[in-house]
Amino acid sequence: MKAVAYRKSLPIDDPQSLIDVELPEPEASGRDLLVKVDAISVNPVDAKVRLRADPNGAAHVLGWDVAGTVVAVGPEVRRFKPGDAVWYAGDRSRPGGNSERHLVDERLVGRKPSTLGMAEAAAMPLTSITAWELMFERLGIPHGTQGRAATLLVVGAAGGVGSMAVQLARRLTGLTVIGTASRPETREWVKAMGAHHVVDHSKPLDAEVLAVAPEGVDYVLSLSATEQHFATFPKLLKPMGKIGLIDDPADVIDVRLLKTKSLSLHWELMFTRSAFHTDDMGEQGHILDEVANLVDAGVIRSTLRENLGPINAANLQRAHKALESGTTIGKVVLEGWS
Fold this sequence. Notes:
Blueprint: E1 2-6, E2 19-22, E3 32-41, H1 44-52, E4 60-61, E5 66-73, E6 85-88, E7 101-105, E8 109-111, H2 118-122, H3 125-138, E9 151-155, H4 160-172, E10 176-180, H5 184-193, E11 197-199, H6 205-212, E12 217-222, H7 226-229, H8 233-236, E13 237-245, E14 264-267, H9 272-276, H10 283-296, E15 304-307, H11 313-325, E16 331-335
Parallel strand pairs: 9-10, 9-12, 10-11, 12-13, 13-14, 15-16
Antiparallel strand pairs: 1-2, 1-4, 3-5, 3-7, 3-16, 5-6, 6-8
Helix pairs in contact: 3-4, 3-10
């Protein structure tokens, strides 16, 4: 089968940073699905793994956003059958989805929204799970539009996770949602996702946020540049406020700044459940099913921004280069095989 892999950690401008390869087709066993991969998306984790985990010559396949069709199932599979259209992010400890056929544990898989094409669907799984787990599980933000008024700040709201977090917060909660963006096109995108207010994170963040939320905010999702803004968060948060992180701060962050207001810090890594085979690993499949229902009901939309064409090494290099620029809006997708 065709696949795109890397054999050595190289800068993305190197022609060998990602390569087209032929690999044996895997076979489904246990609770695995064998999926025909129709479309994929890219995420920062792809570039991080490519640069940090050198496979020493072995062909290592990346890719943790897939939309496709089940072609075979293991004997213990309960939820899916051949022919089902599915979407998922998968498991970082196994080969990724940048291959024509891919094995994935059914517990990590959801039903693809019937109203979306494969490319539109591939844009959403990893970021949907990340945003959902971060807001509703880590920070404990309540579902529903009733209850006390509260405010959420999303730093980096135009990216993949930010785009989903803004939509979920706006549609499923009663929160006032403030998103940050610094360019005209990103500000327009965040507004289209549903943010009540958009502020500029290239300016002093405390002044920007307090201008629209004078009493401060209850929750902060810091999705990028945490080291740049962390010292400002205690100035913005109300007492007992909560901060959620997903990025990898380049510098040490001083958590002592959180003590006076009894603020709390929460990490989210979407791969934790699959890495440790937690008892509730199947929650990720249920989250994707719920997001599919929301999409099909017209409550939220795909975050696809750019389709780079067929899945091959040249196009994936373009996608990784865009990710590494730090200027992508929404999600970049590849569809079909060349």
